[in-house]
Amino acid sequence: MRHRLEYALAWLIVKFLGALPRPLARAAGISLGWIIYLLHHQLRSVGIRNLALAYPEKSRRERARILRGVFTSLGRQLAEVCLFPKHTRENIAEVVVYDGFENFERAVARGKGVLFLTGHLGGWELSAFAHSLYGHPLHVVMRALDNPYLDQLSRQYRTMHGNSMIDKDEPVRALLSAMKA
């Protein structure tokens, strides 16, 4: 029952943000990120603990500032994902600046597989989505979400223009197969 309720709430948020103009969707997403930061004590505690391990030299106040920035970024990222249905090959360049695409094209022309290693920084979801709109779908390694309904919703948006998902527990074999394809 809990999974269905979480899904229903998430679906409403996704559709609401996706219906807004981009600047308003991003502002609403950021606001949602702040609300989650304030209300979700467990997530906040895990974030603070992880930042204390990563940055022991920083003060508690500095780590809290960094964590607020993380939630701001995640809210913005959520809004961008919700807007995926509005993007096309013709308009994606208004949102994503693709620097170095020629390097990818050269590797493909040589018949080589290409491996992108990215962090969860900035618009990582948007960059993979844009790449598929440019006619080059990606195989993306991901961890399935704990809620199967949310996982399906997430995959629906991530695979909208041809990207495919590879479970993080089986990446080596699947990635080797994908790079040979």
Walk me through the structure.
With 181 residues, the chain is mainly alpha-helical. It has 2 domains: 1-83, no CATH class; 87-181, no CATH class. It has helices at residues 2-19, 22-39, 41-54, 60-82, 101-109, 124-133, 148-158, 171-180, and strands at 139-142, 164-167. The radius of gyration is 18 Å and the shape is globular. The N and C termini lie far apart (41 Å).
Q: What keyword list fits this structure?
A:
8 helices; 181 residues; two-stranded parallel ribbon; mainly alpha; 2 domains
How many discrete structural domains?
Answer: 2
Q: Which sheet architecture does the biggest sheet show? A: 2 strands, parallel
pLDDT averaged over residues: 90
The overall strand count is 2
Q: In which order are the strands of the major sheet placed?
A: 1-2
Helix content estimate: 55-70%
Classification by helices and strands? mainly alpha
Distance between the termini: 41 Å
Please trace the helix and strand order, writing H or E for each element: HHHHHHEHEH
Our count of helices gives 8
Q: List low-confidence stretches.
A: none
Overall geometry: globular
**Strand residue percentage:** under 5%
Gyration radius (Cα, Å) is 18 Å
